[in-house]
Write a structure and sequence with these properties.
Blueprint lengths: L11 E6 L4 H11 L8 E5 L8 H9 L4 E5 L3 H10 L1
Parallel strand pairs: 1-2, 1-3
Length: about 80
């Protein structure tokens, strides 16, 4: 519970990667540790290989008012994410 008596909502961070996403998750956890005692919900989405996958991931993340951290090497994937988000 928060000080106001409301349930505490953990921030959600989506990690999108065309590999396993481990590096991005470590960086996100390190940054999150500076706030809210690092109490975050991290949802890793690894092995994204097609631009068609990205809009669905963004819609899911949008439903949780999330932030998205990504490591996408292929320019087509990166450009799709930046355009759609």
């Amino acid at each position: 519970m928060s000080l106001a008596g409301l349930p505490e909502v953990r921030p959600v961070i989506y990690i999108i990667s065309d590999s396993i996403g481990e590096t991005a998750e470590l960086v996100a956890r390190a940054a999150a540790s500076q706030f809210n005692h690092g109490n975050v919900d991290i949802r890793r989405v690894p092995y994204v290989t097609h631009p068609e996958e990205i809009p669905e991931i963004i819609e899911e993340a949008r439903g949780f008012s999330s932030i998205i951290v990504f490591t996408l090497v292929l320019p087509e994937l990166r450009e799709t994410l930046l355009r759609e988000a």
